[in-house]
Design a protein that fits this description.
By secondary structure, the protein is of the alpha/beta class. 37% of the residues lie in helices and 20% in strands. It is built from 7 helices and 8 strands, in the order H-H-E-H-E-H-E-H-E-E-H-E-H-E-E.
Length: 220
């Protein structure tokens, strides 16, 4: 499914869940939207435009029966948390947020306002929902990748580079806590293929460069 179509699914189903409950009321409904990218990011702009277009197709028009509080996280954890706090303070009817860091930031601020997330790998392991079939609480949404894909990444790497014997798992602990979601399948795959695995948590751009023998990288 193309990213644009995926976002339309979000707008067309889960986001309208809290709105539909009140659709017969006259008052304007309010949506909080947290985009973890920057305002100048084309992908972020596309997400916003697709969301607004999809909502309009369902009868929710900005400036008529819908107000949208939009915040940009700019891929900065501190700013994402600050923007989440601002959105919750506005007390919207529902909050839409993408990515694991963005969803975690919003749910740290509220466990009552309905939250619809997307592009989250492990909502159960991250504590966002109780289970995929019965989310519970105030959050629901869509996962973007099933955990077994971790093993497929290793297999694909070995297929395109048969001589690979060492693989580095590169991740930022602050923005990629879902790394453990993939770790099991990755470890199983490297064992079956006779590859050694090294974990490389990286927190900033000044982190040491990878050694030459660890040029094969899986980034989570």
């Amino acid at each position: 499914m193309r990213r644009r179509d995926f976002i339309k699914v979000i707008a067309g189903s889960a986001i309208t869940w809290p709105l539909t409950t009140h659709a017969q009321q006259d008052r304007v409904r309010r949506i909080g939207v947290l985009i973890t990218l920057g305002e100048d990011d084309p992908q972020g702009q596309q997400q916003v435009q697709t969301l607004l277009q999809s909502l309009q197709e369902l009868g929710w028009k900005r400036g008529t029966n819908l107000e949208v509080d939009l915040r940009w996280g700019r891929t900065n954890n501190e700013r994402i948390q600050m923007m989440a706090k601002e959105l919750v303070a506005e007390q919207p009817d529902v909050i839409q947020v993408a990515t694991t860091p963005g969803t975690a930031a919003v749910l740290r601020e509220t466990r009552t306002i309905p939250v619809v997330f997307s592009i989250v790998s492990d909502p159960v392991g991250s504590g966002f929902v109780a289970s995929l079939s019965h989310p519970g609480g105030n959050a629901t949404g869509f996962i973007n990748i099933e955990s077994s894909m971790g093993g497929k990444w290793v297999e694909l790497l070995k297929e395109v580079a048969p001589d690979v014997t060492r693989v580095t798992l590169l991740f930022d602990p602050a923005t990629g806590p879902q790394v453990d979601y993939y770790r099991g399948p990755i470890e199983a795959a490297v064992r079956s293929l006779g590859i050694s695995l090294k974990s490389a948590p990286v927190g900033d751009v000044a982190a040491p460069k990878l050694q030459p023998q660890h040029r094969s990288v899986i980034r989570v």
